[in-house]
């Protein structure tokens, strides 16, 4: 079935952030565009980003974006120069979405509603003349190493001059990112690198995380330690959350993207509960508290220093009897307490399932994609955009920026 009639026709598979942006720019470049999205509503994943607020980009330089992209940052240089964070902000403001910049240069809609970003993308695509159909695309039509179109789950064929695959990764499959884009890429002969969750909560070996479930710690420091190499591979300040399975929260999600090969027990997160205090300052603080509560039990002396949920865990790990009087605690015992507060250990057992990850690490090999056009080096007319490619970044709006930038380049190139 030939649905497209203009001089240049483009099919976009996937109606998420990258797919909608590529469709818009294809249409703006003069092509007739059809978007095939398997969900009744496009941009479902956009609706849940930033806890429903949509961290749409990061108000920073191109270099900063690349520094926050641990996987194949150099591949993105051309795309980010074509569509920078500044361009992203200008784009949405042009569409009438007011933006604001918060801590860490994270950019959100003033309304704090991700729906405003999703609606703006959908409305812009429709205004540009893009047609959106609810279809599940199951295969590519390729002849003589040239893309000819796609085939849906009912066997109906749709033909076009170019096809853009923007199907997402394998995270949050209910939003449509169910990993089928990798199947389509492999049909075209592309290599798909190992898939793993990124920006994902971490499961712990220790059970005491469950004992502190629901406790959120702010303004703390973590170090991610690789015990095999005895090197600290990531450090950060911020917020984390104890859960029934282990750890979550912004800095934990960022730390997860530095774990390339998960092995139970290999990685440890060391939490500094009082990063603003040196060991000497903390020791003085503990001594003051012990002096104030000198005739009271140890368990009753920590309320000013630690969150209530954490006190039983700290006491258990310190080996100090909870009923020992503060004026009887030895210097060695006090030092053990200090060490726990400055280096509280969590041993990592596993990633949470990829369905809980914000993004997927791994994807279509960048070696087989032109960085300047996002076109396949194997099949003429086939383009890629967004999370389907082997690129991923840290939290802070960087992943959406990569989706938008690659989408713009793929869309414009496909329409040429």
What keywords describe this structure?
disordered N terminus, alpha+beta, five-stranded parallel beta sheet, 416 residues, 19 strands, six-stranded antiparallel beta barrel
Total E-strand runs:
19
Radius of gyration: 25 Å
Q: Biggest β-sheet: count, sense, barrel? A: 6 strands, antiparallel, barrel
What is the approximate shape?
elongated
Strands side by side in the biggest sheet: 12-15-14-13-16-17
Unreliable stretches (pLDDT < 50, length at least 5) are: 1-5
- What is the structural class? alpha+beta
Q: Oligomeric status of the shown chains?
A: single chain
Give the termini distance in whole angstroms. Answer: 23 Å
Averaged pLDDT = 94
Strand content: 15-25%
The total count of helices amounts to 13
**Percent range of helical residues:** 25-40%
Report on this model:
- With 416 residues, this protein is of the alpha+beta class.
- Helix content is 30%, strand content 24%.
- β13 and β14 form a beta hairpin.
- α1 packs parallel to α13, α10 crosses α12 and α11 crosses α12.
- The N terminus is likely disordered.
Structure at a glance:
The protein is α+β, with helices and mostly antiparallel strands.
How are the SSEs placed, and which strands pair?
Blueprint: E1 9-13, H1 17-28, E2 32-37, H2 44-48, E3 57-58, H3 62-67, H4 77-82, H5 85-94, E4 99-102, E5 106-109, H6 114-127, E6 131-134, E7 137-143, E8 146-152, E9 157-159, E10 162-165, H7 180-187, E11 196-198, E12 202-204, H8 208-211, E13 216-226, E14 231-242, E15 246-248, H9 250-256, E16 267-272, H10 279-292, H11 311-318, H12 331-342, E17 344-351, E18 359-361, E19 382-384, H13 398-414
Helix pairs in contact: 1-6, 1-13, 10-12, 11-12
